[in-house]
Amino acid sequence: MKWDAWGDPALAKELSADIKGLLAAALGVTGDAAPGPSAAEVVLRPSRITADALEALAAAVGETHVSAADADRLPRAGGKSTPDLLRRRSREPQDAPDAVVVPGDEAEIAAVLAVCAERRIAVVPFGGGTSVVGGLDPERGGLEAVVSLDLRRLDRLHALDETSGEAVLGAGLTGPAAEALLAERGWELGHYPQSFRFATIGGFAATRSSGQDSAGHGRFDEMVRGLRVVTPAGTLELGRGPASAAGPDLRQLFLGSEGTLGVITAVRLRVHPLPAVKAHEAWSFPDFATGTAALRAVEQQGTGPTVIRLSDEAETMVNLAMTEQIGGSPAVSGCLAVTVFEGDAEQVAARHDLTREVLLAAGGSSLGEAPARAWEHGRFSAPYLRDSLLNAGALCETLETAASWSDLAQLRTAVTEALTGALPGALVLCHVSHVYPTGASLYFTVVAALGEDPLTRWGAAKRAAGDAIIGAGGTITHHHAVGADHRPWMTEEIGDLGVRILRAVKAELDPAGILNPGKLIPS
User: Fold this and answer.
1) What is the reported pTM?
2) What separation in angstroms does the CA of 297 have from each of 286, 303, 431, 439?
3) φ, ψ of residue 275 in degrees (nearest 5)
């Protein structure tokens, strides 16, 4: 990905004159933001890695797979949150890992961890670089140096069991690469988070990712049948059979562990044949409460859409303003919902009909397929718009949470009020992104003027929103993970005893404390 923005520079989006006018009217944004430095102009703090350590790392992985050059350090200096990108625009000295190491197999990873434990060097596992919660911050944690452990060479389809419907995928495979390898054999994983084009199989597991097709295929952790993990204390292979009663499920220690307990090297996953048919239908609801009740009815009755999501009134309006044309579809008022169905023709028709009956009975009005197809066509493009907004002088950031259906309305109100209180005049958008029989996830997008000190302003807003989430009964994160940004709320999320359990596991697996310091586990 581009070092100071999201994704492929060729796919960057320019804001239209109308959208710039809307920003000026709504937020007082009247001009372009000051440009940041070019990659050649960026000043990184000097590498602290010693020549002796570099030599030892080169012995572990090969000289060509170790670098302390600024050109290699800069792209791994952090993730892709708005604060990350604002820091990349600074002309002050910036943090970066002291070196980059690119192992090719588990033996090399084990050797790297041994070198780093002996020399007190922190290790930050790196996949696609898409973290938006500070999960890739190159923190030394009081150690001598920090290296980025880039896993991109672990990029194989190791096995495909077509009888059982399981595939073993290397942790360094990106979403598109994994799907391409499976599609050659007529299979699909079907995990499509917004980060899909760049994020990796290992990253999906390490962050408990949830894709946009989760209503049909489940969260990533639900797809996982087994894991291989290299830790400083040894290597683990976890997951036997389709289910087990052999004590606590140790896979769960590493799903969501964010590289703090070990390095995930391969994941055995449930896969399914490529769908023969897709059907799309969009819906309009008069208000968010009516739409939310409709989604709850669909999920609790089990009618089986692959995708189902609902935008509130503000997000519906903004999405339409951002879309030049939606295939001649009728104008959308109220709240827009999207449904998609996949499978063979008979199954798709049956599930589509059942879902349509529920949504009509719940007060929905069909808009046909065009708005749903338009959403699907652009579903990975929103981060590019965030970059354009930053260039125009507007701060744009997201956060997400989840709660039971009974708590969802008060959670939405609490978070919205916290954000608008901290950022007066901000535009706060919300959608239901994932649904479960007992509750749902809310995904918020915040747009405000950058102001004089956007990092401080957003930090205050994030703290207010995090406190509101915990106070209203939500989880501090549904699918973005904890990283450094959500770590302050982990004690409230899991309790003092829960924190002590995590620390005890960390001490057993990583006694030198080298794995991704400053993330997930409160100090």
Assistant:
1) 0.96
2) 16, 9, 17, 11
3) -65, 140
- Mean pLDDT score, 219-231: 98
In angstroms, the CA 396 to CA 441 distance is: 20
Taking only the tens place, the pLDDT of each residue in 348-361 is: 999 999 999 999 99
At 23, which helix (H) or strand (E)? Answer: helix 17-27
CA pair distance 475, 428, nearest whole angstrom = 19
> Three-class SS of residue 146?
strand
User: CB 439: neighbour CB atoms within 10 A?
Assistant: 22
Burial class (CB in 10 A: 0-12, 13-18, 19+), 289: middle
Coil vs helix vs strand at 208: coil
Q: How far apart, in whole angstroms, are the C-alpha atoms of residue 418 and residue 429?
A: 13
Query: HSE on the CB side for 105, CA within 13 Å?
Result: 3
Residue where the block lists tokens 């055995």? 268
Helix (H, G, I), strand (E, B) or coil at 25: helix
H helix and E strand count, the chain: 18, 18
- The alpha carbon of residue 406 and the mean position of all alpha carbons in its chain are separated, in whole angstroms, by 26
Q: Is 181 or 324 the better-scoring residue by pLDDT?
A: 181
**Rounded to whole angstroms, how far apart are CA atoms 47 and 30?**
40
Q: Are 182 and 271 in contact (CB under 8 A)?
A: yes
pLDDT digits 0-9 by tens, 479-490 = 999 999 999 999
Is-contact 285 316, C-beta < 8 A?
A: no
| Identity of the amino acid at 105 | D
